[in-house]
Fold:
Amino acid sequence: MTTRLMTADPESLALAADLLKSGNLVGFPTETVYGLGANALDAEAVLSIFAAKGRPADNPLIVHIYDQAQLSPLCDIPDRAPVLMNAFWPGPLTLLFPRKPAIPDQVTAGLPTVAIRMPSHPVAAAMLKACDLPVAAPSANRSGRPSPTTAQHVLQDMNGRIPLILDGGPCEVGLESTVVDLCHGRPVILRPGGITKEMLEKALGEEVSVAGSVLRPLEPGEKALSPGMRYKHYAPAGTVTLVEGEEEKVVALLKELCLKDIAEGRKSCVLCFSEHVPFLSDCCPHDMGFSKDYSEIAHRLFDILRRLDQEGMETIYSEVIPPEGVGLAVMNRLGRASAFRTIRV
Ligand code: AMP
Ligand code: MG
Structure:
């Protein structure tokens, strides 16, 4: 199969809509990461997403809509959901809803809930409107690779596997959506993202909890509330180690660890804040953005993780940010990239 990479315009959007309506897959931009979409009501089409990604069948997908009127045939609506939908849709927030039979088992991996969101990216919205279908879409990467934040990333992973990628430029948020469960009483963040705990609490006027496995590895036998959290999703091929502590000591240790590895013949680098790049110039620094600019760090993270693999990095030492605001989502992804390997100084 040849994969066409097309700038999003009326012609390519019409082609995308035709492909989706006839059971094919389309790579498309959203404000979070690029998605790999199929008609959510067509079990065969949904199965082909799992094949193209090499994704385990027990990892459910997110259904994308452009209008709240699309919800009623798909799911019931829990009490607090309208508040969050009205506050944050369209935007990077996924909610779990009790599913109705129209949703095939393949979408939810057999779970009783279906994850749904309304993306704000104009290309995603236009595509959803043009096909007028709910579109099931996980991130458009091969399973186990960092999520794609540019159309080029999608091409790297999906060339020859899907007929079309719509190019809408780099994704603004750069991390996957926040996943919130409202179906079991108190709201719980299963996966942190661009809509923060603080934003959710303000909108709901009550406390929102965070699933325990967000900032630590799953314990043996522990069930992941968000199935994707089971997998080593965000890990580059090299070994990532996080270094945490007082600024000057962190920079000194990053330099020491990296230079030692280089001296011993390993390909090694650091992930550091913009203000530390000049001190780490002999450590192949990858600039994460300024330490206080969490949104920029989120925006750059997956592109940096992909480059580490292209550069064949064997050991990677990274700075950390506090798990506050978007920092929680960044530290969840960095934590998983490092299997939570952390040195404190
Ligand atoms: P992706 O778009 O590739 O990040 O994958 C979607 C993720 O959403 C999955 O890996 C799950 O972690 C989460 N998800 C989707 N549906 C559900 C559900 N019904 N219950 C809990 N988590 C879900
Ligand atoms: Mg994914």
